[in-house]
Structure formats: structure tokens, C-alpha cells
């Protein structure tokens, strides 16, 4: 990979980076507006005719979008997203899928096996990422760098 040397390349990359940040901020704003709209819609529908299944599905969907918003916010702040946050969204999406299909017999053994394999893989990634974060925090504490640790 070659180094960026010309002034025009640096200027173009700066503008593209600003545009990218603007798009990410717009997505974050739209996500939060959609979450507020889903909460209002869930409340109105629950008042009109309460259905525990629909309410639970709505709540899980709201949680998924809040996780998406958290990822967008982390990207805006740090320009990096930890893998464990992406895995959390995957687990929530699988839980929502299982809630939508209350009758697990409709899924079939292949789909249930696939979901179990996905959950196991995501659990493995999540625990590895968590262990890596813990080791990094422990290293910073051992070396007297608590001030460098962030959320």
C-alpha cells in the first residue's frame, strides 16, 4: 500500500471522511427517530388491543435497533466497533426470530440446528472478544495506565 503523498489526495480523503461521518450521523439520527416511533406505535397498539406476543416482539425489535444505534454511536466516537456488539445484535435477532415463530415445530430440526450452531459460534466470538478486552484492561492496570482505559 502506497503512502498518500499529493495534496489533492489528502483533500479528497478529508472530504470523503467528512461525508462518511455525515452519513453515519444521519443514520444514527434516523435510527433513534425510528426507535421513538416504534415505542409510540407499540404503546398505542398495546392500549387498543394488548397482545403479549406482539408486545414482546416489539420490545425485542426496539432492543435490536437500540443496539444498532449504540454501534453507530461507537463508530462516530471511536471509528471502531467491537465485535462483541455486533454479536449481541445477532443474538437478539435470533431471539426475535424464535419469538416470531412461537411454534418451534414449524421451524424443523434443520433450522433449529442452524440456529443452535449460530448461537454457539456467536457465543464463542463473544467470549473470545470479552477475554481479549479483559486481558487488555488487566495489562493497562498492571502498567499503571488506568487513565488510558475507556468504555
Descriptive account of the structure:
The protein is mainly α. It has 2 domains: about 10-80; about 80-150, no CATH class. It has helices spanning about 5-50, 50-80, 85-100, 110-140. The longest helix is centred in the first third of the chain and has 42 residues, at about 5-50. About 0% of the residues are buried. The model has no long low-confidence stretch (mean pLDDT about 85).
Descriptive terms for the model:
151 residues, mainly alpha, 4 helices, 81% helix
Structural class of the secondary structure composition? mainly alpha
Low-pLDDT residue intervals, each spanning 5 or more residues = none
Please give the share of residues in helix. over 70%
Main β-sheet, in a few words? Answer: none
Count the E strands: 0
Helical stretch tally? 4
Give a quick rundown of the structure.
This protein has helices at residues 7-48, 52-78, 83-100, 108-142. By secondary structure, the protein is mainly α. The model has no long low-confidence stretch (mean pLDDT 83).
Amino acid at each position: 500500500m502506497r503512502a498518500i503523498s499529493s495534496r489533492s489526495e489528502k483533500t479528497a480523503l478529508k472530504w470523503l471522511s467528512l461525508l462518511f461521518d455525515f452519513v453515519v450521523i444521519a443514520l444514527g439520527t434516523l435510527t433513534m427517530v425510528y426507535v421513538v416511533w416504534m415505542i409510540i406505535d407499540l404503546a398505542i397498539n398495546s392500549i387498543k388491543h394488548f397482545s403479549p406476543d406482539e408486545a414482546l416482539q416489539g420490545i425485542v425489535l426496539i432492543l435490536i435497533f437500540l443496539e444498532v444505534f449504540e454501534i453507530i454511536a461507537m463508530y462516530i466516537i471511536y471509528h471502531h466497533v467491537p465485535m462483541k456488539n455486533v454479536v449481541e445484535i445477532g443474538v437478539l435477532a435470533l431471539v426475535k426470530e424464535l419469538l416470531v415463530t412461537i411454534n418451534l415445530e414449524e421451524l424443523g430440526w434443520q433450522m433449529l440446528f442452524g440456529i443452535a450452531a449460530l448461537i454457539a459460534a456467536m457465543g464463542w466470538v463473544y467470549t473470545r472478544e470479552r477475554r481479549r478486552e479483559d486481558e487488555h484492561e488487566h495489562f493497562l492496570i498492571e502498567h499503571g495506565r488506568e487513565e488510558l482505559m475507556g468504555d
